[in-house]
Specification:
It is built from 12 helices and 13 strands. The chain is an alpha/beta fold. The strands form 4 sheets. A 7-stranded parallel sheet has the order 3-2-1-4-5-6-11, with helices on both faces.
Amino acid sequence: MKIAFTGATGHFGSIVAEALLKSVPADSLVASVRNPEKAENLRARGVDVRQGDFDKPETLDAAFAGVDRLLIVSADGDNDTRIRQHKAAVDAAVRAGVGFIAYTSVGRADSSSLFLAPVHKETEQFIRESGIPYSFLRNNWYLENEAGSIQAVQAGAPWLTSAGEGKVGWATRRDYAEAAAAVLTSEGHNNTVYELSGTPVTQAELAAIVGEVLGKEVQVQQVDDAAYSSIMAGAGVPEAALPIVVGIQRAIREGALDITSGDFAKLLQRPLTPLSEGVRELLKA
């Protein structure tokens, strides 16, 4: 059985690769990457590295040839670009006769107010319409997304947020990647939707965990969206990105990431990595 995964040199895909190599032979793996030269470490370990560029659909046909199970890791970029790229990947999977698609989606993709959700909702629909059995891995939020805030707190800044009492199901990127690897390497996942969420906590609760790790009290500064945008601009966030960072805070405040589910631990067959442990790893980086 051939298992392929896209984005193999990215933050997420590289962890998926490590997880897969622990449980299946390297020669059964296909790493689809835009720039194969960046994946020489995988090739050296026996993984079949192929060029697969979402912007060049003809490369995807070769990248997915002979593949039984495929993980499509969602791409970066603006919504229109991502939708086009994801559609190209799904269409190529159909042409290649892929037997199963796992896709990294987002929590409650079909109903979420999160600005990312429309891309994932459309991509899920592409996959459903393809007729290929699927598993949607609706990832909540990576703890690593808060690295900047955690490092700022370490440097003495308060924990800044406009999310109020909104909760987030943070978990480490490694846990999400290992859950994806579990779906790729085990049976019983056809046409499934997994809401992958850690135990939801507020910004203040996460800040307290960071404080415990650092051994100090962390002040939480709750502001409105306008103030948050202004402070983020002053911290160097590009103007084009300000609506995105503010939109994330607003969506959290509205409960978009307050999702309770047992799917995560069920796939991992172990408890999730404690947030305190994840914070320690981020502070080492």
